[in-house]
Amino acid sequence: MRLSFCTLVFTLLCIQCTSIAKRQEYEDSLRAYKKANLEKAIEYLPTEERKGFIAVLERAHLGFLKGGTDYKPLERIAEESKERLRFSATRSLKSFFYMETEEGYYASEAEIIYLHILLGLYYVRVGDYNKGKIQARYAGNLLSGEWSAEGQFDDPTLRLLLASLWLSTGSVEEAKVDFRKASQLKPQSAALRAMANEKYTQEGEFILIFGGPGAEPEMDPSAHLNFIRGLRNLKFRQTGKQSQLTLTDGQGKTALVLEKDTLGWYERHLIRDNEISELIQDSKYFQLVSASALKEGTKGTVKVTGAILAGTAIVALGAGVVYGGVEVQSSELSALGVGIMIYGFKLGAEWIETSYDDARRNIRKDLDISDEYRYVRFFPEYVWMGKSKLALNDPKLIMNQESLPYTLSPAMGKVKVRFGFFPDNQRP
């Protein structure tokens, strides 16, 4: 009896550990995040998948912005990523790499690269510069993508983050390489070109502020005409205000330049996710389409039949009134009967159209998988960057002469780098 009870408890624990966090489980955490309350954002994180890739990277990202130093779970995931990293090629995406986790999640390129950059920054924060350089070198190799020249994934924001890691390790020339690469990927940015030619010394600071409340997926059934794949298509929506920020200190003001955006991370995530699990997901989705269509078809048939019967009854009533008017030779009564018949036809048609509209809305609701789409939340929508020639003593962020909730971590590294976060989802 005791053995059976223990087995039941173990089974329930396994089910709990392998459950998937949906959008609603993130509501409290995201609410705190949008107020720059990182401590509460971490406290309210979903407990599902707590040891999985998504949960570990989200917690490590928020913890780093809060100024934390606990990198051990992230280090474990980083080592696993090297063993589980897979490379693939498809007709539409050409080539890509991904990591299949134990909990069945396919980590994307941007997530994997950022994981190693973040781990490197954690190493620098605790003073282990050599390990920081190792992570920077590994992330750079993934971004360079010599194995996939035709379809490699590269991104100016990731290059900017990698450059900040190189700076913090004291590797100025390596940082300039990534600044230049970011500039090549985004040639319209004068600020990136300037950063590639700046002089970086131990007396100054490089500032990088993460901005925006984070992108959220939503259904986009209009993207494709293919019924099965089209309805399953998603798009990411960004809501950050892209405000102009200024960093102030006792020594004066430091201009911050907005560099946007990271939407490419999410778009690539969607394409890559479809490529990896195309057949499996389409098979499951077809079952969902069929079930939803059958349910709404049955309901719609009942509603349409009812609308027809109701309309017919009203038309019959009108015909009876017309007949009565003819019998008593009353033109007014006959006209009233004709009016009732016309009303019956119109009302029946409106009810039928409403039934079809209801069915379409219900099917769309059934097939909307955006609440269950799995990805790493809390990533920035864009960043602000700036450079101070002198070390900052008491820096503050302001927008339009007003102060809004934000966080700024202490400067770190051989060449000082300071990170911060501004939700940028409200006006002063």
Describe the 3D structure.
This protein is of the alpha+beta class. The chain contains 14 helices and 13 strands. Strand 2 and strand 3 form a beta hairpin.
Name the beta content range. Answer: 5-15%
Strand arrangement across the biggest beta sheet: 9-10-4-13-12
**N→C terminal distance:** 63 Å
Integer-rounded radius of gyration? 29 Å
Give the overall form: elongated
The number of strands is: 13
Helix content: 40-55%
What series of H and E elements makes up the topology? HHHHHEEEHHHHHEEHEEEEHHHEEEE
Low-confidence runs (pLDDT<50, min 5 residues)?
1-18, 223-231, 279-304
Structural class: alpha+beta
Total helix count?
A: 14
Oligomer: single chain
Q: Indicate the mean pLDDT.
A: 77
Largest sheet: 5 strands, mixed
Q: How are the secondary structure elements laid out?
A:
Blueprint: H1 2-18, H2 27-33, H3 38-43, H4 53-65, H5 72-84, E1 85-88, E2 96-100, E3 106-107, H6 109-125, H7 129-144, H8 156-168, H9 172-185, H10 190-196, E4 205-211, E5 216-219, H11 227-230, E6 234-237, E7 246-249, E8 252-255, E9 257-260, H12 263-276, H13 278-327, H14 331-367, E10 382-388, E11 396-398, E12 407-408, E13 416-422
Parallel strand pairs: 4-13
Antiparallel strand pairs: 1-2, 2-3, 4-10, 5-6, 7-8, 7-11, 9-10, 12-13
